[in-house]
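Dock zinc ion; give full complex structure.
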Amino acid sequence: MSEIIPFRRKTAREKARGKTLCRNGFHKWEAVKERPFDVKEGKLLTLYRCRRCGATQIRRT
Ligand SMILES: [Zn+2]
């Protein structure tokens, strides 16, 4: 069984509401999961989410 990570697709209205820093790519990332999780290739990944706009990002750890 694999874990499914939902990605929110931003609507035009949500984009317009975003902060200038976020729109320029400077998000305020925070780890959603404290522990990295395994994917099938065996790499460790951590899910991050922006506190301001709610964008998500996955990083290798
Ligand atoms: Zn953001």
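Observed: The two ends are 22 Å apart (CA to CA).
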